[in-house]
Amino acid sequence: MLATNIGIDLGTTSVKIFMQGKGIVLTEPSAVAYNQENKIVGIGQRAYDMLEKNPEGIRVVKPMVNGVVSDFTATGQMLRTFLARVCKNMILKPNVVVCVPSTVTGLERKTILELASASGAAKACLIEEPLAAALGAGLGIDVPRGVMVIDIGGGTADIAIITMGCVSISKSIKVAGNALNDAIIRQLRRERDIVIGEKTAEMIKKRIGSAILRDVELGMTIKGKNYITGMPGTFEVSSTEIFLAMRPQLELILEGVRSLLEETTPDLAADILESGIYLTGGTALLRSIDKMFTQKLGIKTKVAADPVNCVAMGTGEALADIDILRHNGYVFKTRAELGGLEEHGE
Known about the structure:
This protein has two domains: 5-132 and 310-340, 2-Layer Sandwich (Nucleotidyltransferase, domain 5); 140-304, 2-Layer Sandwich (Nucleotidyltransferase, domain 5). 37% of the residues lie in helices and 26% in strands. The chain has eleven helices and 18 strands. A hairpin with a 3-residue loop joins β1 (5-10) and β2 (14-19). The model is unreliable at 340-346 (pLDDT under 50).
C-alpha cells in the first residue's frame, strides 16, 4: 500500500490516532458541540471544555456510547475533522485501521467501516480492541499460549483470551470508567445530598479512588451543590465512601472475568494461571486495581506500562505486520466494496 497507514482508537471517552512512522499524532476527547442552528462550534477538546458549562443555545454531544456509534452524524463529523487535521499535507487518502470492542455486531462493524470511509479513508479495516491492546502492551501473542487482556476504557471493559495472534474467546461489559464516575455521583447525591458533575467525579476518582479499601483514609475538598437548598458550596469527601460507591461496578467487571474463565478450555486456563492477566485502558490507572484482581481471582495481574495508549500503539503494531489483520479475517475495504462486506464472526 502506497498510502499512509493510520490507526484509530475510537473510544467512548477519547479518540487517538496513530500514524505509521510518527506514533500517536492526535489525542482528543470524543465530543462535538452544536449551536441552535445545528452548526458545529467545537470538536474534541474545545467541545469537552463546554461540557456542563454550555449555555442553553449550545448542546454537547458524546457520539460514542459503550464503544459503539450512538450518533452517526456527529461521529462522522468528528472523524472527518481529526483525519483532515493529521492528513492535511497528504496527496493520497490514508488506509485506516479502527479498533472496535470484541463483541460488536456485524451491523456495528459495517457502520464503523462506512464512517471511516466517508470520513476520508481510502480503505478501512477493523481490529478488536483487546488484540490491539495486547500488541500495544508488547505481549508475545503469536505463540500457542493463552494470554488474558482486560481493556478497561471509559464505556466498556473488553475481556479477551488471546492465543496465536487471534482472539480465542471474549466478552465485553458495558461497565468501565464512566460507570465508576456515575456511581460516585449517585452515592454523593443519595448519601450526602451533594450534587456534582461528571468532571468532578472523574477528578475524585483519580485523586482518592481505589479498587481496594485504603489502609489510611484520604480526604479531599470538592465544589458542588447542596441537593436540598440548591446552593453551591464546598464539601469534604473521603476515600472510603468513594471506594464503597465504586465497589458494585468493580464487582460486575470481576464477575465478567469469572464468567469468561468458566467458558475457557482447561489448557488455556492453565496458561493464564501461569502468564497472568494484563490490564490496559485508562481505568487501569485506578489505584490498586491490579491488587483487586489478584486478590479476588487468585491470578497475578499486571498493569501495562502505558495502559492509556496501548490500543492506539497496538494499531501501529498491526499496521507494521498486516498478517495480524489477515489472520483475524479482516481485510481493507474501499467504500465501494463495503456493500458486499462479509460480517466477520457472524
